[in-house]
Write a structure and sequence with these properties.
Bound molecules: pyridoxal-5'-phosphate
CATH class of the largest domain: Alpha Beta
Helix content: 40-55%
Order of helices and strands: HHHEHEHEHEHEHEEHHHEHEHEEHHEH
Strand order of the largest sheet: 1-7-6-5-4-2-3
Shape: globular
Mean pLDDT: 96
Radius of gyration: 22 Å
Largest sheet: 7 strands, mixed
CATH architecture of the largest domain: 3-Layer(aba) Sandwich
Distance between the termini: 54 Å
Number of strands: 12
Structural class: alpha/beta
Number of helices: 16
Length: 395
């Protein structure tokens, strides 16, 4: 690791941070350690390890050499002290909430959020006596009013999914500090390239590394980044819950990270180009993209984000869900599927993909109209994506 790491450029960090210069067998790449356990040369070395005289691996659930490398890289990319890798983004959020919240505690959420995070809090944390308050996204006064002496954590995504509302991190952090409550930002849609939550004073940043960080639609992973001391109990609970990433996944994630900045630059370019094209199209009623001046959070986004990502949400003028479905079925490049942030573009109708079993009232409450389409731009050429959307909208 170069000593000047914190001053390095983003890609220099993505390629080199966390890695030793000279590796096992003099290989340029890190090895994959398919080892469930680690052996000790003697009883005395076991005792030395237990008395923490000897830093080393012990058992696969508590750590793996390549996991440490990728965690150090992810911490460097977010400018955090430490990172914790998980088997998925959901495992990471569950791991943090289970560590930080006890019966009687309360958590306040902005309501535009990944539906499984909402479900975990409202349905499962509730069984353990944790109370969840949901307030409208970016309504800082409502969040302020929902905080009381039992509140332990303020949670938001930024940008939110699929509305792409952008949280004013200064206001969010100020609320936490005012009440002495810790803050968590799920920055999956922004990534450390586009948004710097820790620099703004947020306590924990979470990413579904399944998305842009790994970037190839070929693995699931999640990461939490923050202060070492604050994350130590979370690391301990991870060792008990066991939602760890497998060695091959860790390798693929580390490999994907090498090209992270290049991919993000293309995702940002494609997202903006597709959003601008859609905004001009006569069949499109509205486009939600933080990089468009018409977006309600454009000013916050412009002030706080380096780029606006590859996710573009738009509504057709035709209100029937079948019309939106027909556009989705007519595209030839994006595949139909959930997820985002991979090299392949994906497209979906949130009403069908994630909210089909919800009542129409719930869909209204969550802001998911029938005519909404969500496109996750990959790294294909923007001209091709635009030509494809054009033929699909005009077929
Ligand atoms: C996908 C996603 C998650 C969940 O991550 P997994 O890796 O699928 O478990 C959480 N938050 C956001 C914003 C996501 O997009």
């Amino acid at each position: 690791m170069p000593p000047s790491e914190s001053k390095s450029g983003f890609s220099t960090l993505a390629v080199h941070a966390g890695e030793r210069r000279q590796k096992q067998a003099d290989a340029i790449t890190d090895a994959i350690y398919c080892s469930s356990t680690y052996t000790f040369p003697s009883t005395q070395s076991v005792i030395d390890f237990i008395e923490q005289k000897q830093p080393r691996e012990e058992y696969g659930r508590y750590g793996n050499p390549s996991e440490r490398v990728v965690e150090a890289k992810l911490a460097a990319l977010d400018g955090g002290e430490t990172a914790l890798l998980y088997a998925s983004g959901m495992a990471a959020i569950v791991g943090l909430l289970m560590t930080k919240l006890s019966a009687g505690d309360e958590v306040v959420f902005f309501n535009e959020c990944y539906h499984r995070s909402r479900e975990f809090c409202a349905t499962h944390l509730a069984r353990f006596g944790v109370v969840t308050h949901q307030v409208a996204a970016c309504d800082y006064d409502a969040m302020d009013k929902a905080i009381n002496s039992r509140t332990k954590l303020l949670v938001s995504e930024s940008p939110t999914n699929p509305h792409l509302s952008v949280v004013d991190l200064d206001r969010f952090v100020a609320l936490g500090r005012k009440h002495g409550v810790e803050t968590l930002i799920d920055a999956t849609l922004a990534t450390p390239y586009n948004l710097r939550p820790l620099a703004a004073g947020v306590d924990y940043v979470l990413h579904s590394a399944t998305k842009y960080l790994a970037g190839h639609n070929d693995l699931l992973a999640g990461v939490l980044v923050g202060r070492k001391e604050a994350l130590e109990p979370v690391r301990k609970l991870r060792g008990i819950m066991g939602a760890i990433s497998a060695p091959h996944n860790i390798y693929l994630l580390g490999r994907g990270l090498k090209t992270f900045e290049l991919r993000m630059q293309r995702h940002n370019e494609n997202g903006l180009a597709v959003a601008q094209f859609l905004a001009e199209h006569p069949r499109v009623e509205k486009v939600l993209y933080p990089g468009l001046p018409t977006h309600p959070y454009y000013e916050v986004a412009k002030r706080t984000m380096r780029g606006f990502g590859g996710l573009v949400t738009f509504m057709l003028k035709d209100q029937e869900w079948q019309k939106a479905a027909a556009v989705i079925d007519a595209v030839r490049i994006p595949r139909i599927g959930p997820s985002l942030g991979g090299v392949e573009s994906l497209i979906e109708q949130p009403m069908v993909m994630s909210y089909f079993e919800c009542s129409p009232e719930d869909r209204r409450r969550f802001g998911i109209p029938d005519n909404m389409i969500r496109m996750a731009c990959g790294i294909e050429n923007a001209e091709d994506l635009i030509a494809d959307l054009k033929q699909a909208l005009e077929s």
